[in-house]
Write a structure and sequence with these properties.
By secondary structure, the protein is mainly alpha-helical. The protein has seven helices and two strands, in the order ααααβαβαα. Helix 5 links the parallel strand 1 and strand 2. The protein is globular and about 50 Å long.
Length: about 140
C-alpha cells in the first residue's frame, strides 16, 4: 500500500499525475500486517538502504519485495532504485527498471526508435530523475 499511497500523494501535488490513468495497475494489494510482517519489511528496507534509521526510504520497494516473496511468488518489481533492483534480482525476483519498461512498447512495435529514449530524456528533463542510458541503443537497439 505504500506505493499506492505515494501515487495518491504525488497526484495531489503534481499536475501531470492528476490525469494519469492508473486503472491498468489494478487494485492495490493489501500487504500482510502484524509484527512479523512489519519486521520483515523493515529488514528488507534496511538492507536496501544500508541504514538502521527509519526515514521511510525505499519503503515501497521493501514492502513490494516482501509481498512478492510471501504472497505473490512469480510477480515482478519495477523500480529505478538501483539497490532495490539488485536486491530483488539477488532474491530471484523478476525486477526491471524504466529503460526496460519503455523498451517494451518498442519491442512490441508500438514505438519506433528513438521514441522510448526520447521519453526517458523528457522524464529526466521534467524532474523525474530516472537513470537515462548513455544512448538509445540500450533501450531500442
Amino acid at each position: 500500500m505504500v506505493v499506492a499511497d505515494e501515487l495518491r500523494r504525488g497526484a495531489r501535488s503534481e499536475k501531470y499525475l492528476q490525469d494519469l490513468d492508473t486503472g491498468w495497475l489494478g487494485v492495490p494489494k493489501e500487504p500482510p500486517t502484524g509484527p512479523e510482517h512489519l519486521a520483515g519489511v523493515q529488514r528488507i528496507r534496511r538492507a536496501i538502504t544500508g541504514s538502521t534509521r527509519d526515514y521511510g526510504d525505499s519503503l515501497g520497494e521493501a514492502e513490494t519485495i516482501y509481498y512478492i516473496e510471501t504472497c505473490a511468488p512469480g510477480s515482478m518489481l519495477v523500480t529505478d532504485d538501483r539497490a532495490a533492483l539488485d536486491m530483488a534480482r539477488n532474491r530471484e525476483i523478476r525486477a526491471y527498471n524504466t529503460p526496460w519498461v519503455l523498451g517494451e512498447p518498442y519491442r512490441a512495435g508500438q514505438l519506433t526508435c528513438p521514441e522510448p529514449y526520447d521519453l526517458m530524456l523528457a522524464m529526466n528533463d521534467n524532474g523525474r530523475h530516472v537513470r537515462v542510458p548513455s544512448d538509445h541503443a540500450r533501450i531500442c537497439p
